Amino acid sequence: MMLRKCPNHGFEDITQLSIFHNGLRSDTKMLLNAATGGTMMTVDAEKVTKITKVMTSIDYQAQNDSKNESKKG
User: Fold this and answer.
1) Which pLDDT tens digit goes with each residue over 38-61?
2) 10 touches 23 (CB < 8 A)
3) How many angstroms from the chain centroid is the CA of residue 29?
């Protein structure tokens, strides 16, 4: 994930998640909030990290699948 590629500059996990959340588009915020059962900022950092990993892996897989299907046609 992006956090592995970039140092955290000493920010606590919750602060990093807040910065991440504030940088999302509104439709993506709504999806993430729904996935956490309300609002992302009321869930602990570990759970939000797990949810975002699952969401990004699903999105990555869907993008790769659609690229492979368009090459076949």
Assistant:
1) 888 888 888 888 988 888 888 777
2) no
3) 9
Tokens representing 61?
């897989």
Burial label for 33, CB within 10 Å (0-12, 13-18, 19+), is middle
Angle, CA 44 vertex, CA 51 and CA 30 arms, to 5°:
50
Cα gap 10→39, rounded to integer Å: 25
Residue whose C-alpha is closest to residue 51's, from 29, 22, 66? 29
> What pTM does this model have?
0.61
